[in-house]
Amino acid sequence: MKDFFADGRLDDGLSYTEYEDEWRDIINRSKEGLTPKERRYQFYAQYNWDRSQGVIADFEPGEALHDAVGSITDPQIWMVLTEDWCGDSAFSLPIIALAADLNDNVTLRILRRDENLDIMDKYLTSGSRSIPKLVAFSTEGEELFQWGPRPRAAAELRKQLKAKGKSGKEISNALIEWYQDGGYEMVEDELVERLTRAVPA
To answer: How far apart are the C-alpha atoms of 147 and 174, rounded to whole Å?
Structure first.
């Protein structure tokens, strides 16, 4: 069992509703007195809020996801490490949250990455603190599966663009366009894959 699990750290995690409430508070704050860094953070939080709401409005869980999540018979805790300024998370986290809602045996707990770097550092991607990162546990702390920080096709697109020498901004814009063209639906497909392997038939 991971130390942070045994210590009850996931109990401090947020539900998706609580996470959205904090998110709204951030984007609705008065800009008066904010530092340039805080203003930039608020700017990205607003854009990602709009993106996440678009996913929630348009996405309908398919039969395969219903079946995969519905097959969970023992309680699970899904931990997601993320931040609201993350573009990948804006498209992926709503799908994870909607999937978790399909079964009362699944409890979603969202941890802010920058407040939990010791946990994040146990789940690096190629040495990077990339988010969002989903890790599922049994109630006894057994790790069941992982997903993240982005669908395979998005990871491959990012790799190709980096190899071509594209700037960080160009890569970010291309990934956002990929998600907006429906790429975020691949999160559903990959969750089904993980769950199919993790849940005995």
So the answer is: 22
